[in-house]
């Protein structure tokens, strides 16, 4: 009977070892689940923080581009005004030169023309 008792002890030890291994597996699985959920939470927090940073960056730079657009508009209008003023100042002079060139005809024989005999 002592061999039966030894076998029984071995079976009980084997069952206890199986329970220990099972608990270790469950512990490992639970730790993995916890790690995944913690990582997902950190990812969500990081995503929210980066989205907020992006929105703030866009707001800062969009405002400055609107300001740049208004500055460009003012500069363009100033240049247009200067061109119109220059046009009005030199208009008569340019018209007189054009009329003089168009109305002054100086007939000349073309250098390649051959005299007709």
Automatic annotation (TrEMBL):
The record's listing under InterPro entries reads: V-ATPase_G
The signal peptide stretch is: none
Keyword DNA repair among UniProt keywords: no
Q: Provide the coiled-coil residue spans.
A: 10-93
GO annotations of cellular component type: vacuolar proton-transporting V-type ATPase, V1 domain
Q: Which Gene3D superfamilies match?
A: 1.20.5.2950
Q: One of this protein's Pfam families, by short name?
A: V-ATPase_G
Key words, A-Z: Coiled coil, Hydrogen ion transport, Ion transport, Transport
Q: How does it assemble?
A: V-ATPase is a heteromultimeric enzyme made up of two complexes: the ATP-hydrolytic V1 complex and the proton translocation V0 complex.
Q: What protein am I looking at?
A: V-type proton ATPase subunit G
């Amino acid at each position: 009977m002592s061999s039966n008792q030894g076998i029984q002890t071995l079976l009980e030890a084997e069952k206890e070892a199986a329970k220990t291994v099972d608990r270790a597996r469950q512990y490992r699985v639970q730790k993995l689940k916890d790690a995944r959920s913690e990582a997902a939470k950190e990812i969500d927090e990081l995503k929210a923080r980066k989205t907020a940073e992006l929105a703030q960056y866009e707001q800062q730079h969009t405002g400055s581009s609107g300001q740049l657009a208004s500055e460009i508009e003012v500069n363009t209008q100033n240049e247009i005004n200067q061109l119109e003023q220059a046009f009005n100042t030199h208009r008569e002079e340019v018209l007189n030169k054009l009329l003089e060139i168009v109305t002054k005809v100086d007939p000349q024989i073309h250098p390649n023309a051959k005299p007709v005999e």
